[in-house]
Specification:
- The complex is a heterodimer of chains A (324) and B (248).
- By secondary structure, chain A is an alpha/beta fold.
- Chain A folds into two domains: 2-184, 3-Layer(aba) Sandwich (Rossmann fold), CATH 3.40.50; 205-322, TPP-binding domain (Rossmann fold, 3-Layer(aba) Sandwich), CATH 3.40.50.1220.
- Helices cover 25% and strands 29% of the residues of chain A.
- Chain A has helices spanning 16-30, 73-87, 98-110, 219-229, 237-241, 272-278, 307-322, and strands at residues 2-6, 9-10, 13-14, 35-42, 59-64, 91-95, 114-119, 121-125, 128-135, 140-146, 151-155, 171-174, 187-193, 205-209, 232-235, 262-266, 283-288, 301-304.
- Chain A has a seven-stranded parallel beta sheet with strand order 7-11-6-1-4-5-12, sandwiched between helices. A five-stranded parallel beta sheet of chain A has the order 15-14-16-17-18. In chain A, strands 8-9-10 form a three-stranded antiparallel beta sheet, with no helix packed on it.
- In chain A, helix 2 (73-87) packs across helix 3 (98-110) and helix 4 (219-229) packs parallel to helix 7 (307-322).
- Chain A starts with a strand and ends with a helix.
- Chain B is of the alpha/beta class.
- Chain B has a single domain (2-201), classed as Rossmann fold, CATH 3.40.50.620.
- In chain B, 28% of the residues lie in helices and 31% in strands.
- Chain B contains six helices and 13 strands.
- Chain B has helices at 37-53, 67-77, 93-105, 126-134, 187-195, 234-244; strands at residues 2-6, 9-11, 33-35, 56-63, 81-86, 111-115, 138-147, 151-158, 161-168, 171-175, 198-201, 210-216, 225-228.
- In chain B, a hairpin with a 3-residue loop joins strand 7 (138-147) and strand 8.
- The longest helix of chain B has 17 residues, at 37-53.
- The N and C termini of chain B lie far apart (55 Å).
- The chains are: A alpha/beta (324), B alpha/beta (248).
- Chains A and B meet through helix 2, helix 3, strand 7, strand 9 and strand 10 of A and helix 3, helix 4, strand 7, strand 8 and strand 9 of B.
- Strand 13 of chain A pairs antiparallel with strand 9 of chain B, so a sheet runs across the interface.
Chain lengths: 324, 248
């Protein structure tokens, strides 16, 4: 088994998911006496590439081009496909990030490969990779296997542990592909950051607010607590539907599914479609004045009280403890 | 402008999922099925594009006879034509995409719309697979779309921000919440949809490359402790998070 692990970078810095994907590939490879080769695509990424050795890559294939400073669906599809063929890889691991979800389906088609998306666990049975993936936003889980010759897996960010680097530096191999203008049929012309905060899918802690906060002006409470915790801000669907907050913060079945170590649900009652999106969080805290709110059914710790009283005090207490 | 919108018929997001007797899919008994929420946004965008540029919108759905209900809703919203690729064998994304792409090829569309994902299998893969099979450029998870006659300028959602993307036509776009506010079907639309024909086509047979071995419920989370009922509980909560859970 030879696994090609796609290591995502933005602005010549690896995303956390890059280390997660390489480590997950290494864990699978160890059970099948296989090996892991990583792939990095960008403008000037050779300098960061060796770091992937510390997470289990024996070699890192690097493809560089000034036009690859930003993402291009078409160019990336060609590069990843050619890298898989050049390496003779049998398995391709990609993060199920916004980039990976755009890229993996195209690569799978070009390789005539099956794709298991958004996997949250991987195991090996009789030399075959078995992937666990949530369906219905996590209301059910499936175990799947890919039956094509080449197999593609996209891995949900923030779920697989990257562990820490053992300091090994991987060999870097530059792979030259002559890219024509046609390879950039679709191209990113500009990248804008919306808030400067972490995205809910990438954050270790998420603080979410619901309709019980009564209005958009009161989300300052949520933001302050999130800042104190170094957390991302999430919201319930009702809040987005009311136009109080942008959709990219929505957690739940028609928003984002998250699995942080800590999820703090403030004034969120816990509709089934919200619970589906967050109940795989490691620890859940709920603050709600309704003791019968369904959110308490999944919360590890709850406070039954008015969020307007609790949250400012909680923010202050957190500041004391985390010592900011 | 020849526009195709691919739509799916999925369990309502309020559904409590139960595992079916085969242990590999859900129990469909008593489940209310709806037009996939993201596909509603895709339909709306198709209609707006047509209203601006002329042409026609065709809705295509792959599935059993139950999908007629969802195709009727698309007709009621205003699409001109509905096609059912009739086949309800279980499929992975690849074989769904294959059936759709094989059919769409014959239609020579200028634009193909999808919802960014179906809220059943949550693969978020079929749209991009169809784009690849058709050899079209694409924008996934679009929250903004402009078309000046030659170039598509779109914005897609990424972690903590947006990307502006440009590509040419024909193209595949997958719609994300925020792209538009879908219209409600008018009474006239609903009445009219009842008499419109739904064309039935035999799709390419399924050749799945991903096999579901088992479906199960996630480990149940049990209710934890209520730390308190007033502000006095705050220090204890923070202590628990810090010392017991060790998450802060």
């Amino acid at each position: 088994m030879k696994i090609l692990a796609f290591a995502e970078q933005r602005d010549n810095e690896f995303k956390k998911s890059a280390f997660e994907v390489v480590r997950a590939a290494k864990t699978v490879a160890e059970q099948t006496s296989g090996e892991v080769v990583a792939l990095v695509i960008g403008n000037s990424v050779a300098a960061i590439a060796p770091d992937l050795g510390g997470f289990g890559a024996v070699k890192v294939v690097v493809v560089e081009d000034p036009r690859l400073a930003t993402y291009s669906t078409t160019a990336y599809t060609r590069i990843v496909t050619e890298a898989v063929k050049k390496e003779g890889a049998t398995h391709l691991f990609i993060p199920a990030s916004s980039l990976g979800k755009d890229l993996a389906p195209r690569v799978a088609v070009r390789l005539d490969a099956g794709l298991a998306t958004d996997c949250t666990a991987l195991s090996v049975d009789g030399g075959e990779v078995i992937a666990t993936r949530p369906v219905y936003a996590g209301k059910a889980m499936t175990d799947v296997k890919v039956t094509s010759n080449v197999k593609v897996f996209s891995l949900r960010p923030n779920v697989f542990s990257a562990g820490s680097s053992n300091g090994t530096k991987a060999t870097v191999e530059k792979f030259t592909i002559l890219l024509s203008d046609a390879d950039f049929a679709s191209r990113v012309t500009e990248v804008s950051k919306s808030t400067g905060r972490l995205d809910v899918t990438e954050a270790d802690i998420v603080v979410s607010g619901g309709r019980g906060l009564k209005g958009p002006e009161n989300f300052k409470l949520i933001e302050d607590l999130a800042t104190a915790l170094g957390a991302a801000v999430g919201v319930s669907r009702a809040v987005v539907d009311a136009g109080w907050r942008p959709h990219d913060e929505q957690v739940g079945q028609t928003g984002k599914t998250v699995s942080p170590s800590l999820y703090v649900a403030v004034a969120i009652s816990g509709a089934i479609q919200h619970l589906a999106g967050m109940s795989s969080s490691k620890y859940i805290v709920a603050v709600n004045k309704d003791k019968d709110a369904p959110i308490f059914q999944v919360a590890d710790y709850g406070i039954v009280a008015d969020a307007f009283e609790i949250i400012p005090a909680l923010t202050e207490e957190v500041k004391k403890v985390v010592g900011t | 402008m020849n526009i195709v919108v691919c739509i799916n018929h999925v369990p309502d997001t309020e559904t409590k999922v139960k595992i079916g007797p085969d242990g590999k899919s859900i129990d469909r008994t008593g489940v209310n099925f709806i037009l996939n929420p993201y596909d509603e946004i895709a339909i709306e965008e198709s209609l707006r594009l047509k209203e601006k540029n002329g042409g026609q919108v065709m809705a295509v759905s792959l599935g059993g006879d139950t999908h007629r209900e969802t195709l009727r809703k698309a007709l009621a919203m205003g699409v001109d034509k509905a096609v059912l690729l009739k086949d309800d064998t279980p499929r992975d994304s690849f074989s769904v995409a294959q059936a759709l792409a094989d059919y769409i090829k014959g239609v020579s569309p200028d634009m193909v719309f999808f919802g960014k994902q179906s809220v059943d299998s949550d693969d978020a893969a079929v749209g991009m697979m169809v784009a690849e099979m058709l050899g079209f450029p694409s924008v996934s998870v679009a929250v903004k779309l402009e078309f000046d006659g030659t170039t598509i300028k779109a914005e897609r959602e990424i972690e903590g921000g947006h990307e502006k993307v440009e590509c040419s036509m024909p193209a595949v776009i997958t719609a994300q919440k925020g792209l538009n506010e879908p219209r409600y079907p008018s009474l006239k639309g609903i009445m009219g949809a009842k008499s419109k024909p739904i064309e039935e086509v035999q799709p390419t047979p399924a050749q799945p490359k991903v096999e579901v071995l088992v479906m199960k419920k996630p480990p149940a989370k049990s209710a934890g402790k209520i730390v308190g009922t007033d502000v006095g509980a705050v220090p204890e909560l923070v202590r628990l998070l810090h010392e017991e859970a060790k998450v802060i």
